[in-house]
Amino acid sequence: MGSKKKESALQVNISTQELWEEMLSSKGLTVVDVYQGWCGPCKPVVSLFQKMRIEVGLDLLHFALAEADCLDVLEKYRGRCEPTFLFYAGGELVALVRGANAPLLQKTIREQLQAEKRVLAEGRERRVIKDEALSDEDECFSHEKEDGDDEDAVSSEKACTLAVIKPDAVVHGKTDEIIMRIQEAGFDILTNEERTMTEAEMRLFYQHRAGEEAFEQLVHHMCSGPSRLLILTRTEGTEDVVTAWQTLMGPCDPDVARREQPDSLRAQYGTEMPFNAVHGSRDSEDARRELALLFPSFKFSDQVPEAPLGLEAEGEGPGEVPCSPEDVDEASRDQGEAVR
Length: 340
Prior knowledge:
By secondary structure, this protein is of the alpha+beta class. The protein contains twelve helices and eleven strands. Helix 2 links the parallel strand 3 and strand 4. The longest helix is centred in the N-terminal third of the chain and has 21 residues. 42% of the residues are buried. GO terms for molecular function: nucleoside diphosphate kinase activity.
């Protein structure tokens, strides 16, 4: 891709329009990690890219980095906290993946590389896409679905639960790793927003703990920096989404989590109370209240299944609500205007 580019061990840094045009003219498939300068490239996927490069060879597969603020062509990606991976072949956009979703990235790389090989060897028509992900209709999804695969991943109505990646995990750069763990565990992320909470929001959010000694510390911590808010559903396995999320989080206290569930998120990413990395609703009623507070446009089904027993969150139990694509779409369009 030319000696003018500054190369790391794996990914080429595209910092000018000239280098962008040169990338578009490259033979084969190029995967571009579009990132924001304030958070940097998506480091958790580098090992996957290295593995793929070894697996398929060097001739037709390339990886690049592009900071959105440096290139006018990437203007519409500016200010978006979620990693975006653009797949280019023959100078055209042929696929994209949103979020550090390792299984989907691996699948897309293999499929698009095979498709490009057929284009080059057999003269087949290249399938070009338009990035519609910034439209209202598509804003809520974290990646593109292809050719009907996973067509039931978001059905007309599914049980959902709230997940929050807390400021302590976000400030230490663990968001992408946690999201990868969530997706690898079989969850679908219907909404993914980064937001800094207000004190008023957190006092309402944790009002059931207002009498506890640690209440003020908890509120202060949750307002200390950005959190990542997720609405989760689940399409794999027989375990319901709430129980599955509680299991993945582990016990509330990170020290207990490290003893009892060393592979859990709180064991891996939490330090001490209240810095336990992630939050989950305590029951179905509380999930409704929390989602109404943080996503006021979110709609609920009239029928809410009774939440099963599971591991407790912050002195909390499981919670889920049925939701639909329309619910999530409206919630995502409400750009963070939570109840004050």
